[in-house]
Write a structure and sequence with these properties.
Strand order of the largest sheet: 1-2-3-5-7
Strand content: 5-15%
Distance between the termini: 75 Å
Largest sheet: 5 strands, mixed
Oligomer: single chain
Structural class: alpha/beta
Order of helices and strands: HHHEEEEHEEHEHH
Mean pLDDT: 83
Number of strands: 7
């Protein structure tokens, strides 16, 4: 047998109706008293609540000011950024990539570091309103080390299909083999060796001026191959 469902029975008769009315009235009186008590407490506590609100607001404003100051200081630092070859030589790979990103930003290319596992031959990518997208492959090496032609092949192979680039550049604090430079010149993969890096980072020459990077290519030489 199934359980019988319980149903609430309405009040019957005058006595039950009167009792129910008394209970409802008692609940309403209790609710009114609680509301009055809360209002009284709020009235007494409003100076404290106001002070807390002002402190919270001041904290938000202070944080906003600090962030704005930090961004302004960073912008000022990047605007006059200079990095010496001695500083480059003691960097690790990640620091080298971050330094190249900062130099691009200094030159007006909003850039980000993307290097790491699976970077597809791109360590830094920058986007310029007029000059398009640049892909930079960073090759930090010991002084006297040389970058070979296979690096140029890899950058050429991914600049368009993977990164939709208008310009591709390989940068090293060392040197390039003769074959690497010749192959890059033939296939529009620009290269920045130690001497060019010195002019870019120490002397402050903008990268697009150093390499003669023109405005965005209508043909899209790397994108066309995608």
């Amino acid at each position: 047998m199934g359980r019988k469902r319980l149903r609430l029975r309405g009040p019957r008769g005058g006595a039950e109706i009167l009792s129910a009315a008394v209970v409802v009235l008692a609940v309403l009186v209790l609710a009114v008293r609680m509301a009055a008590a809360a209002a009284g407490a709020l009235k007494d506590a409003w100076p404290v609540l106001l002070a807390l609100g002002l402190l919270a607001g001041a904290g938000v404003v202070w944080r906003f000011v600090q962030v704005a100051r930090g961004r302004r200081r960073e912008a000022e630092r990047l605007a006059v950024l200079r990095i010496t070859m001695a500083e480059f030589d003691v960097m690790d790979d990640r620091q080298f990539e971050h330094a190249l990103r900062d130099l691009l930003i200094r030159d007006g290319w909003p850039a980000r570091r993307v290097g790491g596992g699976g970077d597809q031959a791109a360590d830094v990518i920058g986007n310029h309103a007029q000059r398009g997208r640049i892909v930079v492959q960073a090759k930090h090496t010991r002084v006297g080390g040389k970058v070979g032609a296979p690096v140029m092949y890899a950058v050429k192979g991914t600049a368009g299909p993977a990164h939709r680039a208008d310009h591709a550049v390989v940068v090293t604090n060392g040197a390039f083999t003769r074959d690497a430079m010749a192959w890059g010149d033939r296939h529009d993969v620009r290269w920045v060796d130690r001497e060019k890096l010195r002019r870019w980072a120490e002397n402050g020459t903008a990268l697009h001026d150093l390499l003669g990077l023109s405005a965005r290519s209508r043909k899209g030489r790397f994108k066309r191959a995608a």
